Each structure stands twice: as C-alpha cells, then as structure tokens.
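User: Assemble these into one structure.

Assistant: Restating your components, then the assembled model:
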Amino acid sequence: MNLNGRRVTIHDMTLRDGMHPKRHQISLSQMVDIAQRLDAAGVPLIEVTHGDGLGGASINYGFPAETDQAYLRAVVPVLKHARVSALLIPGIGTLDELRLAHDCGVHTLRVATHCTEADISEQHLGLSRKLGLDTVGFLMMAHMSPSEALVKQALIMEDAGAQTVYVTDSAGYMLPDDVTAAVGALRAALRSETEVGFHGHHNLSMGVANSLCAIEAGASRIDASAAGLGAGAGNTPLEVLVAVLNRLGVEHGIDLYGVMDVAEDVVVPMMDHPVRIDRDALTLGYAGVYSSFLLFAKRASERYGVSSRDILLEMGRRKTVGGQEDLIEDVALDLARDRA
Amino acid sequence: MKIPCAIIGSGNIGTDLIYKALRSLSLEPVWMVGIDATSEGLARARGLGLKTTHEGLDGLYPHLQADGIRLVFDATSAHVHRLNAPRLREADVVAIDMTPAALGPYCVPVVNLRDHILRGETNINLISCGGQATIPMVNAVSQVQSVDYGEIVATVASRSIGPGTRKNIDEFTRTTAAGVAQVGGAKRGKAIIVINPADPPIIMRNTVHCLTTEAPDERRITESVQSMVKAVSEYVPGYRLKNGPVFDGRRVSIFLEVAGRGDYLPSYAGNLDIMTAAAVRTGELFAEEMNR
C-alpha cells in the first residue's frame, strides 16, 4: 500500500464517541483538559457533544453530566489551533440545537442518518451550510447497504449541502475490502471538491487497517479516538493510527508522542472499564450491531438475567439501526419470558 | 343519524380514512377532495361511491350546504390546511386537522376530545402519529401521580414515512414533545423518532418513559396503563402493550406495538393507521354531539 505524501485530516472522537463508554459523564474539566492536550498535539478537529449528538440528553440514551452548550462553551474558547465539531442525528436533535451549536462557535457540523435515510438530513445540512459551517454528512451503519445504494444516499447529502460525506462503520463490522469498495464508490461518484471520510469501530480489531484502506480509496478525513475511547470496543485508536500513518508517510500534522501521552496519561486512567474487544463488543462486530448498544445490553443482562450476547444477537436479527436503544430492555424482557 | 363528511387529500392517508369512515355507524363519507384528476385516490373513492373533485376545497365548497357536510377531515399538508381552515370555519364545518398545522388545540381522542367538544372547539389537531400512540400512556401515568418528565421513542418502518415528514422531521419531534407535555400531562416532554428500513418492514413500536415526581405507585400505574391500552385499542385494534410498565427508581417505561388494520395501508404502518383511526374516532365523537 503506497500512501506516501497523502494528506488527511484526523478528526478526534474522544469527547463525543468517548462519551458512550463514560455513560456521558465526562466532566467539564476533563473535557477541557483532554481538548487542550489534543490541541497541543496538533489534532486539527475535535468533536464535542453528548455521545448521541446534540439533543441526545434523554432517558433513552442517558443524561450527560453537563449540557451540550456547557461542554461547547467550555471547550471552544480554550483551543489555540484545533476546531470543534458537533454531531446531530435528525430525529433526536433539531435545528434549534444546530443553531445553538453555531452560537457556541462550532466550526464543523456533522449530520448523521442511517445509511438509507439521508433525505431526513436535508433541512439540517442546508441550515448548517447556510450558517457557513463546515458541513458533513454521516452515513451510519454503512455495512447494511451495498455501495451503489450508499452512493445514492451520499449524493442526497451532497446536494443538500454536505462538503464531506462519511462512510460510518457504526457496528465495527466492515472488513478492509468492504471499506475499499464503499469509500471508492463514494469517491468516484461525488464532486471532486467533496471530501470522503471514514469512521471506524474496533470491534473486529479493524479500526486502523480499515482507515488505511479508506485513505487508499480516496478518503481524506479519518476519525479516531485517544486510546480508542468510544462505543463498543472503541474507535480507531488515535495514537496507533498516527504511528502507522507516520511509517507510511501520510501527512497529518499530529505529534505522535503528544497523542500517545493523552491516551496513556489521561484517557486510560479515566476509563470506567477497559475499552477493549470483550465478548460483547466482539459480538457487535460479528453480528453487525450498533456499537452504542453495548452498555445497554450489559445493564439489561444484569437486570433481567439473560445473556448480553443473546440480546445483541437478537438486536442484529431484528435488523436494528442506530438509536434503537429502547428496544434492548424490551428484547431482554422477551428473552426472560421465553426462558421462563 | 349519520353525519355527512368530506375528506380533503386523496393520498394514502385520505384513502385509508374512507374505509374506516365507511365502517363507522355515525359518519357518512360523501366527498373526497383531491387536486389531481388522475389520482388513484379519487378513482378509488368514486369506486366506493363517494363524490369527488380534483379542484381542492374550491371544488367542494359550493356543495357543502347542499350535501349537509358538517365535518371535514383534512389530510393535506400544514400549508394547505392553513388556507382551508378559515373557509371551513366560515362555512360552520368542523375541521379535523391531520396535518402538522396545529391551528386548533392538540387532541388525543381518548384523553381530551370531550373537553374540546364541550368547549365548542371546531378545529382540532391530531398532533402526530407518534403522539397518538404514546400520549395516552403518558396520560395514564400522570392520572395517577405527577410526572416531571415524559419521553417517547417512536420507531417506524422507512416505507411508512412519506416525503413530507422526511423534509421536516423536526416538526415531528417538536410537535410530539409539546403534546407529551400539554396533553400527556408531563411537566416537560421530549420525543425521538427512529426510522428503520428493514425488509420486511417492522411494525411501529413505541417506548414511553416517564419520570415521576415521587416514587411510582406501581400497582395503580400498572392498572391505569392497562385500562388506557384497552381504551385505545377500542379504536386501534392493533394497539398492544408489549412489555411493562417497568419500574426502575422514578423511571416508568412502557413498550408498545401498533399494527395497522390493513384497510388500505399495509399493516406494518401502524403509525399511519393510528392517525386515520384517531381521526375517525374524533369524527364519531363530534357526530354523537351533533346528534344530541
């Protein structure tokens, strides 16, 4: 694989996807500390919000330690070079929260939909673009759609105002060839000035390898997270990705030791549990299930005495999509009753 | 006596509505109003014995009096309903608004329709499909004790969500959240919608979470929820309590499934069926009052 001289923008997920394994309880001071360290290490773009994006505060997804507004107002002003992004999932967040994020000084707005439902994002992508934000479309659970279908959805987002469209492997299910095909198809179909991005989860240990395939196929934005802090077995580990990109001669502007230290000195010590490929996270990647379901399945498993793997497999069998956390308790109750 | 009524909007919703209205013992669907002479909905309405026009409300207006139309179901769009509403009021016709226009008060028939009728309201808004499915449950809890916060999650089949809703998904979340508070009786409301493209399509499912102010009275809430499910299922036969209520601290969670009756719309589209069923129920209660 020859990636020598390629340029990519690394987008940090520690403070957004990383909210999932922290049950959205990262404190303001931890957010500010990590963001400043990432900034100092040269990370150009840092996502900050509830794990389920703007407006995610809910019984269904979990109430965060602080509001989106408080997090953004704390982080945005203290960064010297890095910019801040916010995620918005239509159906959960609304244009009101988008405007609020804009008021807080967000530079990039990412609008996420399930990979077949891009047309519910038109309003949000349109407003984001109108406000002058760097506007990104985020096609989640991309493994559930063949490349041709994914291209159609990407074009809807591009038409609505997205300047970058992501292939988002929310379940950490994709294998390198899948990523090559999906990213390559988007790269071929979208305008040359539109960027393609890749967001990986490490449930099958493919985070870094998949990111390399994405770059090779034309992606120029890659998501990663310090020590992999993210849903499921976490995201592509930032410090590992940076080390590999250095060896391949990919330009990214990030200091390797800097991000190694953020991961080791700050992020690992603050983990509530080791973010790793345990049997439940592996099941996510194996069955193609939304990574954020992990802790919900573990909790339901404890409460109702049914196996978390059985719950996750059933979630996969029912072809669930991101956001269906509420079905987990329902499924656990069904499984407990069937067993009785 | 059956009350003569008209349906404006000859799309899927309007067409499904005809079947339910034809079954009603107190409504007589007389007119179907569209804007496209070649629409399948108008042809089907004619086949079912309704008079039709493709000239919108203009086409119906001259016949309102002669045909004794006292009730109109508006299944068009928020924009069109805003234009229709003042003219219907002028003609002294009750408007049941199935669009997100919400010019009149929010209504869930089983919760607050009688109050609206007694107050003399003549334009009634049906909130949203998710609202019709979930607000009765929030209300069932808030009837027992005070609810600080109500949150609903509606999961619907991708194929059941039309272009209008897709272009303005925020309208669903905002309107439904407002209904959870105003009609459901929670101090604050939130609504989430998830669209699932699985094939075969999934049946509409809803989760209702409430945070009660004091520790929940489990026995009374369970009874209230079960009796409310029974009341809704009288006009939406596919309305089912799947699991719950589950109690966890102050959290009360209720898991529901809504299968459609399959009149014209496919049965997985319980979200659309519950709208047309709620509309007909609303029409019937008005009809009862008119006959009084």
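Residues 25 and 223 of chain B are 30 Å apart (CA to CA).
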